[in-house]
Amino acid sequence: MATSVLLRRAVRSAAMRRTLATTARCARPAHPVHRYFQQKAPQVVVATMVRSNTASRQWKTVAALAVGGVGAVAAFLASHDSLYANEQKTDVRVDPLSGIEHPETLTVATDAYTKYELVGVGMRMVTMFKFYVYSLGFYMQPRDLDRLSSNWQLQPGVEGPFMNELQNPNFTKVLRIAPYRQADFGHIRDGLIKSIEQRLSSASSDSEREQCESDIEKFRSLFPKGSVAVGEQMLLVIQDNVIEVYHQERKLSEMTSPFIAATLPAVYLDANSVSPTAKEDIEAGFARRYGTQ
User: Fold this and answer.
1) CA–CA separation, 47 vs 190, rounded Å?
2) Which of 19, 110, 118, 222 has its CA 20 to 30 A from that of 252?
3) How does pLDDT run across 8-50, given as a tens digit for each residue?
4) How many Cβ atoms from other residues are within 10 Å of residue 247's Cβ?
5) Could you give the 3-state DSSP secondary structure of residue 223?
6) Residue from 235, 1, 258, 209 nearest 137 by CA
7) Above pLDDT 90, what percent of the chain?
8) Torsion angles phi and psi, residue 189, rounded to 5
9) Residue 280: pLDDT band by 50, 70, 90 thresholds?
10) β partners of residue 7
């Protein structure tokens, strides 16, 4: 009883009226949450509800005051998920295995005017234990995708002639790595290097092999100490044989290597792909774009 009296007094206070007025100005009146409180539980006062401006775009409840009892708040919380179930996100694509979201279009911090289009996504996992490591998003510039169309029409599929053309240094590729759980830069780096080393057989001579091994060591030095947290991203931008490494919006390092630039996409797209789900979805993405699916 005492609690109810205190709550009534709080609602009547001038401070609460100002809070509610601010909320009314900021809230989207047509949103199902507001309809819920107007129609189903008018005795519940929502002080503030804001939508976060993060990639995950999760709704966060900042405060809720119950005037008519705890039951109304419990009813709201129980129905919270269903209220948003019909709200579809058209600007992200979800990796079906991990639930990790990748934006449909991407820009790199050093060039905010160039947009990259998402081709496909997939999960990198430790196969033996089905241990999820990170989700991959594969991006290219729309103009480069258009230029690849004729190659795809001749022989659909990411392997063979199309892969050879895709590795053209004039085509920019962006690999977006979003960890499933917090991941050390070193762990991500070591997994990539292991996959690159397995493709050293493409070197045609001893001198070329030595150069490739030297490039691998330079690639190793690109990654700092520290980790990539859940909800963050690491980008590998490949353009004109230059590999740039980004963490969030910050550029960490870069190097030039035709071998590394050509091999990184192959790690995910050749016959021995480290992520069969990524290869399958990226291939399907090309097929959708070129009208062969």
Assistant:
1) 48
2) 118
3) 564 455 454 554 444 444 444 444 444 444 444 443 333 333 3
4) 18
5) coil
6) 235
7) 56
8) -60, -45
9) very high
10) none
d(CA 45, CA 67): 7
Return phi, psi of residue 157, to 5°: 125, 145
Strand, coil or helix: 149: helix
**pLDDT tens, position by position, 143-185:** 999 999 999 988 899 988 899 899 999 999 999 999 999 999 9
d(CA 183, CA 232): 10
Query: What are the distances in angstroms from CA 233 to CA 139, 175, 223, 226?
Result: 14, 10, 14, 13
Residue ranges with strand state E in 67-212? 92-94, 101-103, 105-108, 111-126, 131-140, 173-179, 183-184
pLDDT 10s digits, 94-150: 999 999 999 999 999 888 889 999 999 999 998 666 789 999 999 999 999 999 999
Distances (CA, A) of 292 to 152, 157, 232, 286, 288: 9, 10, 34, 9, 6
The conformation of residue 27, written as its DSSP 8-state character, comes to: S
Q: How many CB atoms lie within 10 A of CB 86?
A: 7
Q: Measured between alpha carbons, how far is 49 from 23 in angstroms, rounded to an integer? A: 8
The 10 Å Cβ neighbour count of residue 179 is 24
CA-CA-CA-CA dihedral for 204, 205, 208, 209, to nearest 10:
90
* Confidence (pTM): 0.70
What is the phi/psi pair of residue 233, to 5°?
A: -135, 150
Q: What pLDDT is recorded for position 179?
A: 97
Per-residue pLDDT at 88: 53
Q: Assign 3-state DSSP to the chain and report helix, strand, coil percentages, each to 5.
A: 40, 30, 30
